[in-house]
Design goal:
The protein has 244 residues and is an alpha/beta fold. The protein has a single domain, classed as Rossmann fold, CATH 3.40.50. It is 41% helix and 14% strand. It has 6 helices and 8 strands; from the N terminus they run βαβαβαβαβαβαββ. It has helices at 14-25, 37-49, 64-78, 109-134, 165-185, 213-224; strands spanning 5-8, 29-34, 54-58, 83-86, 141-145, 191-196, 235-237, 240-241. It has an 8-stranded mixed beta sheet with strand order 3-2-1-4-5-6-7-8, with helices on both faces. α4 links the parallel β4 and β5. α1 crosses α6 (213-224) and α3 (64-78) packs parallel to α4. The radius of gyration is 17 Å and the shape is globular. The model has no long low-confidence stretch (mean pLDDT 96). The structure holds NADP nicotinamide-adenine-dinucleotide phosphate. NADP nicotinamide-adenine-dinucleotide phosphate is lined by residues 9-10, 12-16, 35-36, 39, 59-62, 87-90, 118, 122, 145, 147, 197, 199-200, 202-205, 209.
């Protein structure tokens, strides 16, 4: 039995790096996706020094040629993919300081475009390129790294969420992708889920998060190793399902 193959986008740091570490410790071959060759090589080398089978794969989710080249390389070297973690993400405003984010009425459309390009369009590009490889897996898993901020719930018991229009909207749209792909892949072994890792200290939020990256990554990795009886088309956090 060969090792499972997992591709994590944006794995050179933060939650993606910690997810690669956890999946590597599970015995998977982890493909460390990164848009910077320098940072990606360094991250893969760090994991390899820990004894994990980690390899850098150049992947800028907003660059079609890079996505296509990554899929071709994975096909040539591994012939299939078992896990895809769509982790790469940005916030085009300073998420460490929600007050610095313009209210919806004065947000620049360019900021919305930026968030959607990476957090949504990039996920479609990578998912569509990798799906033929995931369909060759006996138990393909796609994990879309979403956020509680993407939830549209108005339940008053839910903690208040900062009103970051570009970012929050992109994560809501990412959740829509999860439902759409899970619908298409129903009846196949491929499961597709969104996860909310919780507010973790990373560069994304100027390290203001209250959880460690490892805690957030554990939620992501959990959805990557779901058994055949696990959910698909769900939105999951450490505390269970998240309201859409
Ligand atoms: N931290 C949290 O509290 C939190 C909570 C909920 C959800 N999330 C989500 O978790 C994911 C990871 O975020 P993080 O907190 O770990 O942030 P992070 O430390 O800033 O890491 C983001 C990663 O995405 C990569 N990336 C950005 N644009 C990319 C592109 N076009 N192509 C490839 N990679 C790209 C970055 O690469 P570079 O190093 O080259 O910039 C970096 O590796 C994001 O989707 C984020 O929305 C985070």
């Amino acid at each position: 039995m060969t090792a499972q193959i997992a591709l994590i986008t944006g794995a050179n740091k933060g939650l993606g790096f910690e997810t690669a570490r956890i999946l590597g410790r599970e015995g998977m071959t982890v493909l460390v996706g990164a848009r910077s060759a320098d940072l990606g090589e360094k991250a893969a080398a760090t994991l390899a020094e820990e004894g994990l089978d980690a390899r850098f794969v150049h992947l800028d989710v907003t660059d079609a040629a890079s996505v296509e080249a990554a899929a071709k390389r994975i096909e040539a070297e591994h012939g299939r993919l078992d896990v895809l973690v769509n982790n790469a993400g940005i916030t085009p405003t300073d998420a460490s300081d929600p007050a610095s984010s313009p209210p919806p009425s004065s947000v620049s459309p360019d900021l919305v475009r930026m968030a959607l390009e990476t957090n949504v369009v990039g996920v479609v590009a990578v998912t569509n390129a990798m799906l033929p490889l995931l369909r060759r897996s006996p138990a393909g898993r796609i994990v879309n790294v979403s956020s509680n901020l993407g939830s549209l719930t108005t339940d008053p018991s839910t903690p208040p969420r900062p009103n970051l229009l570009p970012y929050n909207t992109s994560k809501t749209a990412l959740n829509a992708l999860t439902v759409a792909y899970a619908g298409e892949l129903a009846g196949t072994p491929v499961k597709v889920n969104s996860v909310a890792p919780g507010f973790c200290a990373t560069d994304l939020n100027g390290h203001t998060g209250t959880r460690t990256p490892a805690q957030g990554a554990a939620v992501i990795a959990g959805a990557a190793v779901l058994g055949d009886d696990g959910p698909t088309g769900a939105f999951i956090s450490e505390d269970g399902p998240v309201p859409w």
